[in-house]
Specification:
Number of strands: 8
Number of helices: 9
Oligomer: single chain
Structural class: alpha/beta
Largest sheet: 8 strands, parallel
Shape: globular
Mean pLDDT: 96
Strand order of the largest sheet: 7-6-5-4-3-2-1-8
Distance between the termini: 12 Å
Radius of gyration: 17 Å
Strand content: 15-25%
Helix content: 25-40%
Order of helices and strands: HEHEHEHEHEHEHEHEH
């Protein structure tokens, strides 16, 4: 299917999820995850009106940026980032969704010469060993220690749902992330307003919307898997 047709379906499901949870569809930003598709398919997404694009890897991000030249596009890096690769993406991403260690925060801050990088702190709510992210017990201390990095702004929290078909388990993880987001947000920290939530992918974004996400990261259901 064409991306524009997929987008209509995604938007319809988001609208219905918003109706069920008393939210406004315009408060949910759709990010097209283009890691498994060609540059041409990513461009089709932009032509369809999707101006938030995400890649998991630095290499994929830079490749897409070589061919997509549109000032309306907001670029997201959503995968784990090695400190040695930081210098190659600084100035090229608008949002970084996987801040999970102080060493990485320090390297990012050191390389950024002006402005602030909008970051999501990645959390491992499910406790799965295969997933990256800090634990709930580490959150407050981690946020406190980010105070020294002038060029980072913690706009929210991010997580990935556990690998399960049990929607109740997925919902519990998303619900817990929202509670933690609210806790940090209510501290009213200047460098960590923490007003956003990044959660929900192709198979669970409707649950994420019902649980309050503000960014959904959708690949297969939106741009496909080439």
């Amino acid at each position: 299917m064409k991306v524009v047709e997929n987008l209509c379906q995604v938007k319809s499901k988001i609208e219905k999820a918003c109706e069920r949870s008393g939210r406004r569809p315009e408060d949910v930003t759709v990010i097209a995850v283009t890691k498994y598709v060609s540059n041409e398919r990513a461009q089709e997404a932009v032509d369809s009106g999707i101006f938030h694009l995400a890649e998991n890897r630095k290499e994929g991000l830079l490749e897409k940026q070589e061919t997509i030249h549109d000032d309306r596009v907001t670029w997201h890096l959503i995968g784990t980032l090695q400190t040695r690769k930081v210098k190659e993406i600084v100035g090229k991403v608008d949002y970084f969704h996987a801040l999970d260690r102080l060493k990485l925060a320090n390297e990012l801050n050191k390389r950024i010469t002006e402005g602030k990088l909008k970051c999501f702190v990645e959390m491992n709510i499910s406790g799965e060993e295969s997933k990256h992210g800090i634990t709930e017990a580490e959150l407050d201390d981690f946020i406190d220690k980010l105070a020294e990095f002038d060029h980072l702004q913690v706009v929210g929290l991010m997580t990935m749902a556990p690998n399960t078909e049990d929607s109740d388990v997925i919902r519990q993880v998303f619900h817990r992330l929202r509670i933690l987001r609210d806790r940090i947000r209510d501290r009213k920290i200047t460098y960590a307003p923490c007003s956003e939530l990044s959660m929900g992918m192709s198979h669970d974004y409707e649950i994420a919307v019902e649980e309050g996400t503000t960014f959904v990261r959708i690949g297969t259901s939106l741009v496909g898997n080439e």
